[in-house]
Design brief:
- By secondary structure, the protein is α+β, with helices and mostly antiparallel strands.
- It is about 20% helix and about 20% strand.
Length: about 260
């Protein structure tokens, strides 16, 4: 492994922000909502909100939609459904092998899905080269005393987070704190390289035309934006989306009530 491969690095194309005043509107809106609600993840003010369901995967690694799982289990498809519940067959259903092997990924989009979402969102902003990306501070490669493995090199090796990351100001969410980067939307997949392995938790463009949020514990991503953006998401075969509201619950103990 080369020496530079052992070094901690920021996501390619991204700038770590020391001044996070541009995120003040996000903090103010999120903090007005209780934990466990969509509003604690995504600001108010957008015409429409949707829930993008992370796919499960079959034994060949192919994505499986939640609707397919619900059809197998006999469970009801609705905007607040949780995967942990729809995977449980009702009486008379669940015949044959389940259509999935791996459950939806929690806390992050898959890299291909993040790329696809960025591609779609890019058509709905005038500032695609000036976007904000917030990352939860609790990941090992960002925490005091944390050490992270280098993803692309199979030789092991761990590096501690640099001082500038540990001392960077935090965006204050609801029971979540984030460091903030700025960069082009096209570089969103750089969060999957080297010490990084997950999509950003919050991301939005400078012109505030949309907002995307993936909480660390959830298997869904929430998006707020215009009517046209939501329609584009709903009609894109790459995504499985359901309508959402900011007062919707986000945890399985409540979502299927």
């Amino acid at each position: 492994m080369k020496n530079q491969d052992r070094e901690w690095s920021h996501p390619c194309g991204m700038i770590l922000l020391r001044d996070i005043s541009a995120a003040g509107w996000v903090e103010e809106s999120l903090q007005a909502s209780p934990f466990g609600r969509v509003g604690a993840l995504i600001p108010e003010g957008f015409p429409r909100y949707v829930r993008l369901l992370h796919p499960a995967h079959d034994d060949q690694g192919k994505p499986v939609r939640w609707a397919e799982v619900a059809a197998w289990s006999g469970q009801r498809v609705h905007p607040r459904m949780s995967f942990d519940i729809i995977r449980m067959p009702r009486q008379g259903y669940g015949k044959g092998s389940p259509p999935w092997k791996e459950p939806p990924r929690r806390g992050s989009l898959e890299e291909a899905d993040a790329m696809a979402l960025a591609e779609l969102l890019g058509a709905f902003t005038t500032t695609p080269n000036r976007c904000f990306f917030a990352v939860w501070e609790g990941y090992g490669h960002l925490s005091p005393g944390g050490r992270a493995g280098l993803a692309p090199c199979g030789e092991g090796g761990h590096v501690p987070p640099p001082r500038e990351v540990l001392e960077a100001p935090r965006l204050e969410g609801v029971e979540r704190r984030y460091i903030l980067y700025m960069g082009p939307l096209s570089c969103v997949t750089s969060f999957f390289a080297r010490v990084w392995s997950d999509s950003p938790n919050l991301w939005w463009p400078e012109d505030r035309q949309w907002f995307a949020a993936t909480d660390i514990d959830l298997d869904s991503t929430y998006v707020g934006g215009s009517e046209a953006l939501v329609e584009a998401l709903a009609n894109d075969p790459r995504f499985e989306v359901l309508p959402a509201r900011r007062d919707d619950p986000t945890y399985k103990e409540e979502v299927d009530l």
